[in-house]
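Collaborator request log, item 7. Partner lab (contact: R.S.) asked for a structural prediction of LysR family transcriptional regulator to inform their binding assays.
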Amino acid sequence: MKVSYFQIRFKKGKVNMRISSLKYFYEVSELKSISKVSNNLHISQPALSHQLSKLEKELGVKLFDRSNKGVELTNKGKILYDYAKQILTLHDNLIEDINEDDCKNKEIRINVLNTHANFILDGVVRDMGSIFKNINISINSQKEVNKKALLIHNRADLVISCSNIDDADLISEYIGSDKLILVSGGCLECNSIERLPVALLDDDSNTVLKTLENMSKVNVCLKTDSLDVIKSYLKKQNVAAVVPRISVEKELKSGKLMRVCSKGYDVSYDLFITYRKDIDANLKKKFKIFKKELESILNKECIDAVV
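Returned to partner:
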């Protein structure tokens, strides 16, 4: 079942508004860019602009100030934004409740938004069945420009990322920190790190950008979001790679990889879990248990690294 229209009564009369138009408005308000929303939602820019103009015409107000730098909400637009957020959430909840399967098993959708955040799940995935008993677990890795929309519009139940997601309707909690470190597959013959061919595990996050600033004089010859590609690369002699410490702990312990001591290239990054405030108490309790398990994984790796 789909709810395509809702009706608002003004002093001047009634306005029939599409949910899709309100969603377009909300997404553009969040990203402040028509082109980004056009790419994300797979709608042409002219069609998106037409939807926004039609919404302004229906309401009889200007919602955006447009410029070469993007769009900004007007005062009237800010009022609609606050209501749009509530309306879209209620609409998504309505559709979810109507279409909810009566089966015993439900599904928890976990989205991992950064390559670096993926590796924390390796140590806890075997215990997830006992934490989320009688619940199907779906884990997806995707790069999403609008992180808030994933949760607010019910496209995910829990998000793991390298940054805090700030929103009044969401709970974003710090899990812990890890480090990007420089590793190699054996002894290095280069006298200077600057001449060393280096591979970078890249996830387009601020962490990587910060690393690149620190590595401005280093020969970065490979960037990939695949750890397997990095490990294959490290089988070559006299090369190194920058990777999350947690992703190569087993190889460091076994001696398959060696940590290259270089203070300039150790960069810490934080990990967070985020979920909606309005979830039921039982699910929130399970998320708290899951968070503790993730914290224990990070704490264990930190202790092992020191030892």
